[in-house]
Write a structure and sequence with these properties.
Layout (H helix, E strand, L loop, with lengths): L24 E4 L9 E5 L5 E3 L10 E3 L2 E2 L23 H5 E5 L2 H10 L8 E3 L9 H5 L2 H10 L4 E5 L8 H8 L4 E6 L5 H7 L6 H13 L4 E8 L7 H13 L5 E5 L6 H12 L4 H7 L8 H18 L36
Parallel strand pairs: 2-6, 4-7, 7-8, 8-9, 9-10, 10-11
Antiparallel strand pairs: 1-2, 3-4, 5-6
Helix pairs in contact: 2-4, 4-5, 8-11
Amino acid sequence: MRWDHLAENAAAARGAALFDAEAVTTRTFDTPEFRGVTFHEVRARSIVNRVPGASRMPFEWTVNPYRGCTHACVYCFARKTHSYLDLDTGLGFDTQIVVKVNAPELLRAHLSSPRWHGEHIAMGTNVDCYQRAEGRYRLMPGIIAALRDHANPFSILTKGTLILRDLDLLKQAAEVTDVGISVSVGFTDQELWRTVEPGTPAPERRLDVVRTLGEHGIGCGVLMAPVIPFLSDHPAQLRATVQAIAASGATSVTPLVLHLRPGAREWFMAWLESRHPHLVRRYERLYADGAYAPKWYQRRITGQVHELAQEYGIGPTRPGMPRRIRPPEPEPVAAEPTVSGPTQLSLL
């Protein structure tokens, strides 16, 4: 494992190392939830990362306290980052987890720098900051507290139910800055969930998170991602998913079609060959031109989801815009108008 050359992306890998090799501690825990998982505790040199200019992401800065993810989603685009550690992008990504144990203190120092101007920071856009490891390492409370204390706007995207542990901190942060929360639920099909997202909470548990946040005055959007061609894109499946999202009280729903970047593509296609071999040729044709499904397919899915969302009374999010969390008002207030028109985000 080449810790001396570890960087956040391939371009950065050619520059200075982010961790010292002697600062790595490797641990395993003999508990059911972590059996077979190895944790590499590192003291990072930096924690706020600039998104490459060529990225489709609608934000410029991210914080990622973990690398690798026990959610084990077979389609996860972040799998490629494990190759920078000489780890495989398949099982290694699911079971070899890098933990930046000094993330909260690093972030607090960064936010205190006169060179930092309070730009929006996105979390959960690479790997999930509320994966199971967070239950043991508890990095997010310190991270959120630092952002709160500096009134720095931020957003969180997660599939994890553990975010509810930090509900009070999120509400405190929202008193002083803009905070956006989104939960990722691409489909509600139970059989598909068990095979394609084996380490995540069930879709209905994630929607319970949306519901609970709403009950505490926290508006929460849903990123309907990924919509998986030929497995979760039937009109009846899309309707069932949007209906469940609406019932949870989500403030918005934004669809995102599966994309298969190098690293993720190989792992996903191996899974497809094992589970749905009859679809392999169809995927090879659909993704023949690269990581993204054809525009016509993306537009079709986006249009269908937005029509259903309008039917059920919810709308799309605006790219890159954090949603302000506010405490419950004692008296009802008029709802803000939703934004109409299709939106295709690239967050996962």
